[in-house]
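Section 5: illustrative case.
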C-alpha cells in the first residue's frame, strides 16, 4: 500500500470586483442588498451575465430585502473554523423580498426545530462593515434587521478590490525508499543507492532508479553515506510577511556535497552557522536529533529530513575548489 502525504499551499491575492459585484459589496457596507434585473427576474447576488444564456446584463441594479423567506436549509451541528458562526447554525437558501432566486447564507436560529421552509428571516449586520458578503454576519428569524455591536457608518468609498486566500491541497505518494531513508536518520545514518551498472551513488530518499542507466534501485542497492560534506551553494531567504510565515529573520538553505560521493543534498537547514558567515567551501557535518527523540515525520524541500536537523560547520579549513558551485544536483 502506497502511503500518501497531503500538502496545502495557501497564498493571498487581491481580485478586482468590476462594476456589478463592486456595487453589491459597496452597498453591503451601507447595509443594503442589491440585485440585478434580468428581464422580469432579479438576480441576487447580482451577476454581469445572464447565467442561462451568457448574455451581458445592463447594470440595472435594484435594492432587495433585506428580509426574506427560507426556501431550504441544512443544519450544521458542529461548526469548524471555516464556518461563518462558531455555534450550531443552518445554511439556508433565502429568497430575499424582491429577488427571483435564493441567496445562500447562514441562519442563527438556535436549534434545528426553529428552522423551516417559509421561515421569515432578516440580516444581522456586522457593526463594522468592509464591503464583503460577511458584512451580513448571518440571518435571524423575524422581519427586522439588527446590527451586532456599535454601528460604524460606512466610509462611502466604492469597494473595488477584495482580498482572497487561495488554497490548493494535493497528495504526494511516499516511496518506500524515502521512508527507509528517514528511518535511517533515526539511527543517525544517511543512506544512498549505488547503481550496479555505472556505480554512481544517489541519495536514498529521492528516486528509485538510476537516470543514466534506467536501472531500478531497490533495497539491495542501498549503502551508507558519510555524514560530512562541503557546502556548494546556498540561498538566504529574507522572510516577507504573509499569512503563515513564522520566520522573522533571514535564514539560509544550503547545498551539501557529501564526502567521497557525487551526492548533493539540496535546500538543507543549517545549525550554528550565521547567515553572514555562509560561503561556498565550508566543511560541514550533520546535526542530528538525539536518538529516540520524537521527530517531525513531515519532510519536504527545506525541511529537516527525519532526525537530520541540519548542517553545522566542522571547523576544518574551507575547500577551495572553483568547481564546487557547479555541483548543484
Ligand atoms: Zn547507473
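Designed sequence:
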Amino acid at each position: 500500500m502506497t502511503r500518501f502525504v497531503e500538502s496545502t499551499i495557501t497564498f493571498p491575492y487581491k481580485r478586482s470586483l468590476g462594476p456589478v459585484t463592486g456595487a453589491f459589496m459597496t452597498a453591503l457596507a451601507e447595509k443594503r442588498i442589491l440585485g440585478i434585473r434580468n428581464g422580469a427576474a432579479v438576480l441576487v447576488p447580482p451577476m454581469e451575465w445572464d447565467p442561462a444564456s451568457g448574455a451581458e446584463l445592463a447594470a440595472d441594479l435594484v435594492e432587495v430585502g433585506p428580509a426574506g423567506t427560507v426556501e431550504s436549509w441544512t443544519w450544521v451541528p458542529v461548526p469548524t473554523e471555516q464556518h461563518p458562526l462558531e455555534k450550531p447554525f443552518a445554511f439556508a437558501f433565502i429568497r430575499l423580498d424582491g429577488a427571483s432566486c435564493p441567496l445562500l447564507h447562514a441562519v442563527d436560529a438556535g436549534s434545528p426545530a426553529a428552522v423551516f421552509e417559509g421561515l421569515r428571516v432578516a440580516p444581522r449586520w456586522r457593526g463594522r462593515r468592509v464591503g464583503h458578503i460577511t458584512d451580513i454576519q448571518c440571518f435571524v428569524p423575524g422581519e427586522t434587521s439588527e446590527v451586532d455591536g456599535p454601528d460604524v457608518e460606512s466610509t462611502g468609498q466604492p469597494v473595488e478590490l477584495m482580498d482572497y486566500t487561495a488554497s490548493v491541497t494535493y497528495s504526494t505518494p511516499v516511496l518506500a525508499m524515502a521512508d527507509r531513508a528517514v528511518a535511517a536518520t533515526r539511527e543517525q545514518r544517511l543512506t544512498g543507492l549505488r547503481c550496479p551498472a555505472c556505480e554512481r551513488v544517489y541519495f536514498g530518499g529521492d528516486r528509485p532508479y538510476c537516470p543514466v542507466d534506467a536501472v531500478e534501485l531497490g533495497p539491495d542497492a542501498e549503502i551508507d553515506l558519510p555524514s560530512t560534506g562541503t557546502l556548494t551553494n546556498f540561498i538566504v531567504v529574507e522572510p516577507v510577511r504573509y499569512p503563515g510565515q513564522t520566520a522573522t529573520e533571514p535564514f539560509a538553505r544550503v547545498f551539501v556535497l557529501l564526502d567521497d560521493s557525487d551526492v548533493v543534498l539540496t535546500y538543507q537547514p543549517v545549525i550554528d552557522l550565521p547567515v553572514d558567515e555562509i560561503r561556498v567551501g565550508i566543511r560541514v557535518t550533520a546535526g542530528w536529533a538525539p536518538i529516540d527523540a520524537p521527530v517531525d515525520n513531515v519532510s519536504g524541500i527545506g525541511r529537516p529530513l527525519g532526525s537530520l536537523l541540519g548542517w553545522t560547520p566542522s571547523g576544518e579549513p574551507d575547500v577551495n575548489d572553483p568547481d564546487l558551485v557547479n555541483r548543484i544536483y
